[in-house]
Amino acid sequence: MLDWTDRYCRFFHRLITKRALLYTEMITTGALLHGDRQRFLQFDSSEHPLALQLGGSDPADLAACAKMAEDFGYDEVNLNVGCPSDRVQNGRFGACLMAEPELVAECVAAMRNAVSIPVTVKSRIGIDDRDSYEELAHFIGTVADAGCRTFIVHARKAWLKGLSPKQNREVPPLRYEMVYRLKQDFPPLRIVLNGGITTLEQAEEALRNGVDGVMMGREAYHNPYILAEVDRRLFGMPADAVPRSEIVNRLMPYIERQLAEGVRLHSITRHILGLFHGEPGARSWRRHLSEEAVKYGADTSVVREALKFTAQ
Q1: Where along the chain is FMN bound (predicted)?
Q2: Which end of the chain is more exposed for a tag (fewer CB within 10 A), N or C?
Q3: Which one from 65, 83, 107, 148 is the annotated catalytic residue?
Q4: Interacting residues of 34 by C-beta distance below 8 A, sequence separation 6+
């Protein structure tokens, strides 16, 4: 979710669900060690529970960045070995690391030795022609031996050559059965299913099939109000879903604070375009925000005007 689940997006999503674990976009170790770590790591306290997702392959660098995550107050640090983009491969991190389970285990061990918060791993079910269940189980077992207890598994393999990142999210077939089998073969581990989940019904079915959790990415971004029923249906909380218009009203003070600090309105509103997905006025809501929020000096009045296009 590079360039998507930034702190503005996460604050907005937390207004919709209180219980779902939120993840940052993947941040490279180099960006934290040599860049503006405050900009990358800062977040609003309301975003908890929150996991920092890291990209890297050097155990010492990952340990240092995991310590930063703990010092900043993150609830979990996650190592991404599932992203198949070219720029990730060129940096020797992401999905290409699935070919090196011993290195991933070394990275996890170093991170665990540096922090007390959970260290988790996000992966694919395989890469290229290395996509048998036996190879996946070897990877999981090797990394688990280093102390990782939670694996988020995207149920598609990744083709490192020949497919774009977008195609790698759509072309390789989903093989949920491999993830379900992992849970059967590694019962002490927390296995979280990722990939292709677009409804809460699908999430509930996956949980009935034995996995410990479900990760939802792009659907939650493009249709964020799907999160409104998560707390009640998946966590058993009695609270009713907050109406869409009320979510917008609750977001306003945050937007005003960010504008006062020099943040441009579009940096926030680009994440809320899908809030009225499937509702009357959704297209006008998106169009007004897209056209007006990018203008110099745009403020919360743009959002209030956009809200008038929707059914209240």
Answers
A1: 53, 122, 154, 194-196, 217-218
A2: C
A3: 83
A4: none
Tell me whether residue 218 is annotated as binding.
yes
Q: Which residue(s) pair with 213 in the sheet?
A: 192
The verdict on pTM exceeding 0.70 is yes
Residue-range definition of the domain harbouring residue 68: 7-225
Contacts of residue 38, Cβ cutoff 8 Å, sequence gap at least 6? none
**Active-site residue, 83 included:** yes
194 is in an annotated binding site: yes
- Tens digits of per-residue pLDDT, 215-235? 999 999 999 999 999 999 999
> For residue 116, how many other CB atoms are within 10 A of its CB?
7
Indicate if 79 and 161 belong to the same structural domain.
yes
SS (H, E, C) 269-294: HCCCCCCCCCCCCHHHHHHHHHHHCC
CATH number for the domain spanning 190: value is 3.20.20.70
195 marked among binding-site residues: yes
The reply to whether 154 sits in an annotated binding site is yes
